[in-house]
Amino acid sequence: MSTRSRPSSRPSSARRHEEGKSPRDQDLLYEYKAAYLVAVDDLTDEIDSKEKLNLALQQTGRNPSRKTLDKYWKRNTVSLTFDDFCDICKKEPVTSEDDLMKAFKKIDLNGDGYISHSELYKIMTTKGEKMTKEEVRTMIDEVDENKDGKLDYREFCKMVLSTTKESQKAARERLEKKGKLKRISSSRPGSGREQTSEASPRSRKEEERVAPTPKPRQRSLDKSKSSGDHPNPLPRSKKTEERSMSPVANKRIKLPEPKRIKDWTRLHSKGCMYVDEDGTFTSHQYSLRLPDDTSVWVTIEPIDLHPEEDHSKKPPVDIILFVLRDKPDRDGNRLVTFTEQRDSKGKYCVRCDLKSGKYTLIPFTTGCRLRRRMSVPKGESKLLKKDKDDKYVLTKTFRDTLSDIFEIADLDGNSLLSREEFNWYNLRTSGEAVADEEWEVVEDNVELKKGELTKKGFLELNQMEAEDNEGDTEDLWVTLQTMGYNKGLTMDEACPFQLEVYTEECDNAVLKVADIQAGSSALHEAVCQSVINKGDTTKLKSSKELYMYIYLSDVRATVVLENKSHGKATVRLDCSKSRNCTSHRQDLDLELDIPSGGCVVGQHILPLKETAEWSFMCTETVIK
Asked: Which burial class, exposed, middle or buried, applies to 151 when counting CB atoms under 10 A from its CB (0-12, 13-18, 19+)?
């Protein structure tokens, strides 16, 4: 596996593989070639993304989980050769009908062999390798012949395997066609050398599936590079007044906690915010059910796993909570409120009155302080060692790290992991739910207390994994990295937090973890709506339908741009004259495209050092 680009002008790896192979091996090699050429154009080309690796493996009849892909496509991986791909195929088994049946039995609660469309739809669009809504709808229409709202997953498994075989057959036919084209080309007069292969006729649909999701692009500020022969209209700029704020750490803010809070009903849960490979965030999300109307006091704060250590020089990660109603109101908005007030230690709160009903609670961070790591440790911490009996055991440093992970996974804080809590942990680290037989292994082999996993039992599970892998730490590192740890066993891409909900007039409210997923469109809309509701509004002079909203508090500044026109707009935001600030973007001075009818978060800005004064200043320029 390569961690940097390599020249592809080398002898064909396919020819090297074919030498001395048995007929069975040659058949497998031919299958690997056919699958590889679905993702790239030539065997000498390299797979340059995790999505393409997933596509190629699927063409061989494998259905890799996120954990499997992470094992072979590490953070420093740039590309994989055909040799690498063959090695992966030899290590990973083909997905069988039994594998598919086990996966569906996990969600077949009554064991009747059927699952509802709504349950399948939810799982396929939110778990593992997510499908689009249209893909799920098309799949259901193909399988549900009698339109009874249920899916016979035994037949579905057979259909999946049949579709896989058809895909493999199509890939082989494309490869055979390539061979014919190659022979024709090499036999033509003037053909001086043999060509390895022709371009692969991949479909537009396949290319779109592996393309990254488009995001607001940052445009170059070098005006000499602008395209077109016509001069651009003169941009119009407007500068906001500089706003200075005193040091956050010096304010000693006390949150306005209700006077008789001890008499209120307390609900609580831990959770964690994780940085994903693409820089987005995944976190636990919650559902809150209120049988009665009630006053509510909500707090959320980052958890310090080691309070004995000095963290005074490092400001707390901003963990904010958005409260959304189950269904949009008349204006199409789901936002109810968000935790706006903050104390000097990083605890956010809000008090409000809520009607009876169901609410979604979504944690959020701006990304100004929690973000992708900029550097990696020079050395790698040792996870395993051999004892006097030549047996692999966990090192003390690794055991301490696993103890911290146990504390994060213990969502209810009772020093035990229920099956549900262990399931959320497993979904984060492998992308898969815990099957009945897997939980039985836990029950039969490690320490439990009242049917829940103890910390000792959790460490025993990791010890078992180390022994099963005969000292290979690759899978252990995948787990650590998905939990936000670097090679020095420092958690720098995750932030655990504590959520508390107090209800005054509702004794039987229910707070529970509903999901663990990346920020949704509902969260983006809530963030924008919160700034529109609370911020200062500016109607940009050069456009009647372009607005800028600035939310400014003692601890945060957020700029949102809204485009109500029928065409795309481009605005330059220059916040570079702000002092003692850090942004969620790479640059404080950039250009942004705002689509028609859309909202874009231009900047989130926080003080870089909370012990010093900070100021916010923004100049906006409408480019077009």
From this structure: buried
Q: Are 551 and 538 in contact (CB under 8 A)?
A: no
Tokens of 303: 């958890």
Comparing CA positions, the residue from 500, 497, 498 lying closest to residue 262 is 500
The mean pLDDT of 384-404, rounded to a whole number, is 94
Mention every residue, 6+ apart, whose C-beta is less than 8 A from residue 346.
Answer: 301, 302, 315, 316, 317, 318, 319
> What pLDDT sits at residue 451?
94
Q: What is the dihedral of CA 25, 30, 34, 39, to 10 degrees?
A: 50
Q: Give, in order, the Cα–Cα distances in Å from 309 to each of 108, 257, 312, 484.
A: 47, 28, 9, 19
**Mean pLDDT of the chain, nearest integer:** 81
Are 363 and 520 a contacting pair, CB within 8 Å? no
Position 110 confidence tier, pLDDT thresholds 50, 70, 90: low
CA–CA gap between residue 309 and residue 393 (Å, rounded) = 28
Q: Is the separation of the CB atoms in 358 and 345 below 8 Å?
A: no
Percent of the chain scoring above 90 in pLDDT:
47
What mean pLDDT is predicted for residues 346-362?
95
What does the alpha-carbon distance between residue 295 and residue 303 come to, in Å, rounded to a whole number? Answer: 26
- The answer to whether residues 216 and 570 touch, using CB atoms and an 8 Å cutoff, is no
Token duo for residue 551? 């939310």
Question: Per the confidence metrics, is the pTM higher than 0.70?
Answer: no
Return the closest-CA partner of residue 360 out of 269, 300, 288. Answer: 288
Please calculate the CA angle 322-325-323 and round it to the nearest 5 degrees: 15
Contacts of 160 (CB under 8 A, 6+ apart): 100
Rounded Cα gap, residues 418 and 404, in angstroms: 17
Per DSSP, 619 falls in state E
Matching residue, tokens 């600030």: 581
The DSSP line for 516-543 is EEE--HHHHHHHHHHHHHHSEEEE-TT-
For residue 299, give the nearest of 352, 355, 336, 251 by alpha carbon.
Answer: 352
**Paired tokens of 362:** 């979504």
More confident: 261 or 542: 261
Q: What is the C-alpha separation between 376 and 486, in angstroms, rounded?
A: 7
Specify the DSSP element, H or E, that contains 400: helix 396-409
Burial environment of residue 504 by CB neighbours within 10 A (0 to 12, 13 to 18, 19 or more) = middle
- Tokens 């040659």 sit at which residue? 26
Which of 619, 574, 565, 572 has its CA nearest to residue 593?
572
How confident is the model at residue 8, as a pLDDT? 36
Selection from 46, 213, 55 nearest residue 129 by Cα: 55
Kindly report the number of other CB atoms within 10 A of residue 313's CB atom: 7
Please, which residues bridge with residue 151 across strands?
115
